[in-house]
Write a structure and sequence with these properties.
The complex is a heterodimer of chains A (about 110) and B (about 575). Chain A is mainly alpha-helical. Chain A has helices spanning about 10-25, 50-70, 75-80, 90-105. The longest helix of chain A is centred in the middle third of the chain and has 17 residues, at about 50-70. Mean pLDDT of chain A is about 90; it is low at about 1-5. In chain B, strands 10, 11, 12, 13, 14, 15, 16, 17 and 18 form a 9-stranded mixed beta sheet that branches. A 5-stranded parallel beta sheet of chain B has the order 2-1-3-4-5, with helices on both faces. Residues about 50-60 of chain B have low confidence and may be disordered. The chains are: A mainly alpha (about 110), B alpha/beta (about 575). The interface of A and B includes residues 56 and 59 of A.
């Protein structure tokens, strides 16, 4: 399966974990806010819709989703202390890449 | 369309997730929730109205508030309990009393106050096997604190306690997420907050009087196991040494318990009526008998049509009804044809029926009155009244033979809960359809010196319907206004309405007015009230649309001759009865 994929695209597992987490987080946002799930969509404020509580919700939701997918922790707690330019919470794509790397590291 | 309710969340923890879940929840009523600054519970509670000054359009006092705290955060000595410092129990409970006093003060500045009981996380074992028996056991002390909290708030108008243990149970081992706590001061997972939202919404619907009153049931494989038309009542699975039979019995016990808190039952079933009613009469294990049902439609017609007809026969709205049927196709049909009727999903396994029934949040009530307990029986009495009507020559003769007695009494603390229930639940004979919480209605009655609120109890030879009428009037200068004119559908159409007008006229005269008006405010349900004022009240319609009715107070208004009106309370002069 993985061999046939676009090398730049996240694996279905990473995509599934992030997608599941975003759906959970969206339900915790004020009414009317819909999270864009495209790879370029910004996540963290000020460009994105997630404030500090939203990011914490995303961390918890992604770790839960990883557990649902049978993975271990994906290390997002540690990512909270990174400067914005290195943060996985910049966009959906950077978050997927972080999760992908974390899964590969567990590999 | 009504505006969303404004809510204020008061807590020692971050309630942002809860506020957003509340605002996103699509079940009625629509809510806009604001979080008070977290960690400042005492200052918010003592700040009263100022703390509840919500932003946004409308502003002002919130419609409701939820106070949800962790016990160690608001009761300092409970923190000492958790640290095994063994503070004196009396001091601990005094702190609870002080918290109760703060809540009672705060409640005066909000429409309705919900207070969550204190919980621990499901996995917290406290003092282990000594947790509930040792005097220092945190579990034991938390039970004592919650009991004190309940005693301190029980019966306070406008305050309702919500059981947060149920919300924790929904979360199970995942009720708490330490990541959320340490990173954002959110102690609970979304699953716990979602359970709280469901409970809070049910509470708000109850306070608004949106409680469902009628539960319509299918028979075969719903009230009993099997098809009665095929096996006869002797072949049904009900009771006996049989798991399913016991489960159906438990389900019926649950239904019977609902009737004792005011829910009325009906039957809509595709069956031969004589066969089905014979089963209800003859099966020795039936908990529910024919007199437990307010009405039925047992035939081979479309169930949605039958539900609509039964609801109409019982003088109720479709939004008061719930329909339970084991057959998903029938549930789907009723749901599609009658979207106002609540049709809960129903388990396939009858062993789950009783627990499913107990979990429904459709019948929550803001008050439980003596009238609620009698409601089911009153429908049986109504059947007898109708029988009398068919054997009587005229409406006048029927009214005479009912031997109606109406007792009017000024509103007092003993009648407040039922009066507010009537205000919030009565739709048809309701002049202005004002809705109030107990606290707000008391406050309204106290504003201005020329307001009076009267309650009416009605009985006849068949039954005592209890407190079923409410009249509020206010007077300013020479004009008295009818603010509330409410009569339960169980008693209207017997000229009790005219006796209420008589009292309104007499009290308006006493208040120095020269005219009495009643302005009708239309809703989609209160057409019967307009019909009464237009056709049977004797008051003069005014205005372009003839929605204001007037009575000049230089004329008396007679008490209908077929009923006896008695005024109760402090030395009330008794009315002059009209001669038959």
């Amino acid at each position: 399966m993985k061999e046939a994929m676009d090398p730049g695209a996240p694996s279905p597992v990473a995509e599934g974990i992030v997608g599941e987490a975003l759906r959970e987080v969206e339900g915790l946002l004020p009414p009317g806010i819909v999270l864009d799930t495209g790879p370029e969509a910004p996540l963290a404020a000020p460009e994105g819709p997630l404030d500090s509580l939203g990011i914490v919700n995303l961390v918890a939701a992604a770790e839960e989703a990883a557990a649902h997918h049978g993975s271990g922790p994906v290390g997002l707690m540690e990512a909270l202390s990174l400067p914005l330019e290195e943060s996985p919470f910049r966009t959906v794509g950077t978050l997927q890449a972080w999760v992908e790397a974390a899964l590969a590291g567990k590999g | 369309m009504s505006r969303p309710l404004r809510g204020l969340l008061v807590s020692d923890f971050h309630t942002g997730n809860l506020a957003n879940l509340l605002a996103r929840d699509e079940s009625a009523p629509e809510v806009e929730a604001e979080s008070a600054p977290f960690g400042q519970v005492a200052s918010v509670l003592l700040g009263g109205k100022r703390a509840g000054n919500t932003s946004g359009e409308g502003g002002g006092e919130p419609d409701f508030a939820l106070v949800w705290t962790r016990p160690e955060a608001v009761i300092q000595r409970f923190g000492q309990v958790l640290a095994m410092e063994a503070p004196p129990v009396e001091d601990l409970l005094h702190e609870v009393d002080a918290f109760v006093a703060q809540l009672r003060t705060f409640a005066q500045g909000v429409g309705t106050l919900f207070v969550a009981t204190w919980s621990r996380m499901p996995g917290d074992r406290g003092l282990g096997i000594l947790d509930l028996s040792h005097p220092e056991g945190p579990g034991r002390l938390l039970h004592q604190m919650n009991a004190r909290l309940m005693e301190g708030l029980a019966g306070v108008p406008g305050i309702y306690l919500l059981d947060s243990d149920r919300w924790m149970a929904q979360g199970g081992e995942g009720a708490a997420d330490p990541r959320l706590w340490y990173l954002a001061k959110v102690p609970y997972s979304p699953v716990v907050f979602r359970a709280a939202v469901r409970e809070l919404k049910a509470g708000l619907r109850a306070v608004q009087g949106r409680t469902r009153k009628l539960l319509i049931l299918d028979l075969d494989d719903t009230l009993w196991g099997g098809i009665v038309g095929e096996t006869g009542w002797q072949g049904l699975r009900l009771g006996g040494h049989d798991a399913q039979g016991e489960a159906y019995l438990d389900f019926q016990r649950g239904l019977k318990a609902l009737t004792r808190r005011g829910v009325i039952l009906g039957i809509v079933s595709k069956n031969d009526p004589e066969v089905a009613l014979t089963a209800i009469r003859e099966h020795p294990e039936m908990i529910l008998r024919a007199e437990d049902f307010a009405g039925w439609r047992i035939n081979w017609l479309d169930k949605a049509q039958n539900v609509a007809e039964l609801v109409s026969e019982l003088n109720l709205g479709l939004d008061a009804a719930v329909f339970i049927d084991d057959n998903p196709a029938e549930r789907g049909r009723v749901r599609e044809a009658l979207p106002q009727v609540a049709v809960p999903e129903w388990p396939e396994d009858p062993l789950r029926y009783a627990s499913k029934l107990r979990s429904l949040d459709l019948f929550d009530q803001a008050q439980l009155s003596a009238e609620d307990r009698k409601r089911s029986g009153s429908y049986a009495a109504e059947r007898e009244r109708k029988h009398l009507l068919t054997s009587t020559g005229s409406m006048e003769e029927w009214l005479e033979r009912l031997e109606l007695e109406v007792r009017a009494r000024p509103l007092d603390p003993s009648t407040l809960p039922r009066a507010v229930q009537l205000l919030n639940k009565t739709n048809q004979m309701n002049l202005r359809t004002r809705r109030f919480s107990e606290g707000d209605f008391l406050a309204w009655g106290r504003e201005g010196c020329s307001r009076e609120v009267w309650t009416f109890r009605v009985r006849d030879r068949f039954s005592d319907a209890g407190l079923t009428g409410l009249l509020s009037i206010s007077a300013e200068g020479e004009e008295a206004k009818t603010e509330d004119f409410i009569l339960s559908c169980r008693v209207f159409g017997r000229e009790v309405e005219n006796a209420m007008i008589h009292l309104a006229v007499e009290r308006a005269r006493e208040l120095g007015a020269r005219t009495l008006t009643a302005e009708y405010l239309e809703t989609d349900r209160n057409g019967p009230c307009l019909s009464f004022f237009r056709d049977r009240s004797g008051l003069t319609p005014e205005g372009k649309e003839e929605r204001v009715f007037r009575w000049d107070l230089d004329r008396g208004y007679p008490v209908p001759s077929h009923l006896k009106l008695t005024l109760e309370g402090a030395s009330q002069p008794q009315p002059q009865q009209a001669q038959p």
